[in-house]
Amino acid sequence: MTYAFNTLSRMLCGAVLAACVGVLAATPVHAKEDLWPILREQAFGDRPIAEEDGAVVLETPQKVEDAALVPITVRVPPHVKDKLKSLSIFIDNNPDPKVATLNFGPAAGAGGERSFATRVRVDNFSHARAVLELEDGSLHMASKFLAAAGGCAAMQAKDPEAT
Question: Would you indicate the residue range of the signal peptide (predicted)?
């Protein structure tokens, strides 16, 4: 009787251990997947994007105080003389990664410092990206890593003047 109980006990422990290993092995791969190639393809197709070439500058805080109110500033330096066509902002790991697309008209002008500032929510550690399209169709990108999480789950009633 004791022998049968010990054998049954060992088999049950082995089955539980195997189930735990199976659950851990089945962790979703997409949790660590780099989503940018997919987002890039959806937004820009196979068009080349010049990365970190100085045509667009993305400024974010080094330390994020509140993931529900992360300030970002996108600047187009004065040395960029071309007219702007559009600016798209992405946060790769947000539930809706495309934060905004700004389309520029004649009032945006050409040359001189041009900038845009806003606050965004960040759901999980992620890259923020600003992709600038010039009138000639060329694409330029700046990116920064944001170490913040939980901003998309925060209450809606946040006071942007509080931080």
Answer: 1-31
